[in-house]
UniProtKB/TrEMBL annotation:
Record-linked Pfam families: Phos_pyr_kin (PF08543), TMP-TENI (PF02581)
Function of the molecule: Essential for thiamine biosynthesis. Bifunctional enzyme that catalyzes the phosphorylation of hydroxymethylpyrimidine phosphate (HMP-P) to HMP-PP and condenses 4-methyl-5-(beta-hydroxyethyl)thiazole monophosphate (THZ-P) and 2-methyl-4-amino-5-hydroxymethyl pyrimidine pyrophosphate (HMP-PP) to form thiamine monophosphate (TMP).
Domain of life: Eukaryota
Signal sequence extent: none
Keyword annotations of the record: ATP-binding, Chloroplast, Kinase, Magnesium, Metal-binding, Multifunctional enzyme, Nucleotide-binding, Plastid, Thiamine biosynthesis, Transferase, Transit peptide
SUPFAM superfamilies (UniProt xref): Ribokinase-like, Thiamin phosphate synthase
Record-stated family: Belongs to the thiamine-phosphate synthase family.
Lineage: Eukaryota, Viridiplantae, Streptophyta, Embryophyta, Tracheophyta
GO MF annotation list: ATP binding; hydroxymethylpyrimidine kinase activity; metal ion binding; phosphomethylpyrimidine kinase activity; thiamine-phosphate diphosphorylase activity
Name the record gives this protein: Thiamine biosynthetic bifunctional enzyme TH1, chloroplastic
Length: 544
């Protein structure tokens, strides 16, 4: 059993969400973070032409009139992460920064009706639960989760508010243990909730958190995140994840503020939002924690209400960078579906400008673009890259620069792709900050692990098949690709020798982390880039 410490220097996950996906089915609900290409293809097939799917979280929780926690926090957190959020209200609370003045529980019949309305029509990717005030409501929820094909399930086992008021009595505990937790892909108890789920023994150390995570895992959820924010003995905030095999510790510096009302709801819904965008459970937690910490830090001095537990500002980014947010799509692992990588020599051979190459690839349906210009002069490269940024941004397609961090910064590209002998990803992350996309070339699970630790957003694995595009490049084959994908905590795009005739076996590998293929010559060493891109996309989408 291994043990990992995860740094919090994190990538936000810039994404565009053209492709929603279905999770593979397990125990009535589908598994979290296990989107696969086939599922994305199925979704794409069902989508009417010209319509764009958005990632979607359904929150089943209570309303907080003060809007710091509950349904209101969930909606704001999802909005901040670019994810649609529908709602099933289980209770209406009269609540402010002082405490909870009243609770009005919604009837089981009406909770069932709300669930049916959303689940039968809107097909959320992920269901996130918060306040479930009665065993009857837990039962209704579990029945609905089994009746409708829902996405992954994130359970925040809310029992007590930040002010100490009881939101779900001890009668609900048994229902959590017996009915809901066995369906959950991840459950996120704080210390008190973890203790309550396990019969009441207090948790006082990180070691206690480890054993609690393991014991709760035995109840049935696939992943358990025990949040140690209230641990008296630590100066850092430590959360412990157990996935059934390994323990992970997420450490972050405590933000000195009393504006913490709703952090639990916000963390759980941010995790749900990242899962809906195609992240693995580990990535989702890392990104969600980074988001919550940034929001807490941004809001540490705001004043709302006279009580001890103020809310924080979920949408702080809108104030700082509204134009930026509007212009730039956030990155999603699903963007990697058809990754077009330009080549200066091929452009020269076909008499094409970088701009025309990029424009045609986008017209053909490329979902992300990388400028890989090995020969261009820096000044020419920068000018062309600026134009390409404009084109990509106007189409909502992320644009990355190969190798050249300086060019990426100067043209405000969405990120970079670096190899094992380029600028280390850790340094690139420090230079580029949390909001840029960083991809790293990896041939082995060890390199993939390092990329994750260094704060990359995805890895490019290859060359898979032999290629003339990159000299002296050892091939890893489909087996090597599969090994890396199975071990990687980051989404993977396969690269090397791909074209219409051989892309199918990759699509059929069936490994959840593999999100798409990156292609150079089969798109750019051809007369019509847009036609080739379109035809390849059809095969990717149409593969069975
Ligand atoms: C998506 C993607 N994956 C891998 C590579 C290769 O990058 P690198 O190993 O740095 O080699 P060069 O492309 O720089 O020759 C890539 N470019 N894109
Ligand atoms: C850049 C790179 N890295 C590994 S293989 C490769 C080249 C892929 O090019 P092609 O798609 O033409 O085989
Ligand atoms: Mg390189």
């Amino acid at each position: 059993m291994g043990f990992h410490v995860c740094s919090q220097a994190l990538s936000s996950a810039p994404i565009h969400h053209q492709f929603r996906y279905i999770h593979s089915i397990s125990r009535g609900v589908r598994r979290a973070g296990v989107s696969n290409l086939r599922a994305m293809q199925q979704e794409e097939e069902l989508k009417p032409p010209g319509r764009v799917r958005v990632p979607h979280v359904l929150t089943v929780a209570g309303s907080d009139s003060g809007a710091g926690a509950g349904i209101q926090a969930d909606m704001k957190a999802c909005a901040a992460r670019g994810v649609y959020c529908s709602t099933v209200v289980t209770a209406v609370t009269a609540q402010n920064t002082v405490g909870v003045q009243g609770v009005n529980i919604v009837t089981e019949e009406f909770v069932r009706e709300q669930l049916k309305s959303v689940l039968s029509d809107m097909r959320p990717d992920v269901v996130k639960t918060g306040m479930l005030p009665s065993p009857g409501i837990v039962k209704v929820l579990c029945q609905s989760l089994k009746e409708f094909q829902v996405g992954a399930l994130v359970v925040d086992p809310v029992m007590v508010s930040t002010s100490g008021d009881v939101l779900a009595g001890s009668s609900v505990l048994a229902s959590f243990r017996e009915e809901l937790l066995p369906l959950a892909d991840i459950v996120t108890p704080n210390l008190r909730e973890a203790s309550a789920l396990l019969g009441g023994a207090p948790l006082e150390t990180v070691a206690d958190m480890h054993s609690a995570a393991k014991s709760i895992h035995n109840i049935g959820p696939r992943n358990v995140l025990v949040k140690g924010g209230d641990l008296p003995s630590s100066s850092d905030a430590v959360d412990v994840l157990f996935d059934g095999k390994e323990f992970y510790e997420f450490r972050s510096t405590r933000v000195n503020t009393s504006n913490t009302h709703g952090t639990g709801c916000t963390l759980a819904s941010s995790i749900a939002a990242e899962l809906a965008r195609g992240s693995s459970v580990l990535s989702a937690i890392k990104i969600a924690k980074h988001y919550v910490e940034s929001a807490l830090d941004y809001s540490k001095d705001i004043l709302i209400g006279g009580g001890h537990q103020g809310p924080f500002d979920h949408l702080m980014k809108l104030k700082n960078s509204a134009p930026d947010l509007c212009a730039r799509r956030l990155f999603s692992p699903n963007d990697l579906l058809l990754y077009a990588v330009t080549d200066s020599r091929m452009n020269k051979k076909w008499g094409r400008s970088m701009r025309d190459a990029v424009k045609s690839a986008i017209e053909g349906g490329a979902t992300i673009v990388q400028l890989r210009e090995k020969d261009a002069d820096t000044r020419d490269f920068l000018e062309a890259a600026k134009t390409c940024v404009e084109i990509c941004r106007s189409h909502g397609v992320p644009l990355l620069i190969n190798d050249r961090i300086d060019i990426a910064l100067a043209c405000d590209a969405d990120g970079v792709h670096v190899g094992q002998s380029d600028m280390p990803a850790r340094v690139a992350r420090t230079i580029l900050g949390p909001d840029k996309i960083i991809g790293v070339s990896c041939k082995t699970p060890e390199q993939a692990e390092k990329a994750w630790i260094d704060g990359a957003d995805y890895i490019g694995c290859g060359g898979v098949y032999p290629t003339n595009t990159k000299e002296n490049n050892l091939t890893v084959g489909l087996d090597g690709l599969k090994t890396v994908c199975l071990e990687s905590k980051l989404p993977v795009v396969a690269i090397g020798g791909f074209g219409i005739s051989n892309v199918r076996p990759v699509m059929e590998l069936g490994v959840p982390n593999l999100k798409g293929v990156a292609v150079v010559s089969a798109l750019f060493d051809r007369e019509s880039v847009s036609t080739e891109t379109q035809n390849l996309l059809k095969v990717i989408i149409g593969s069975t």
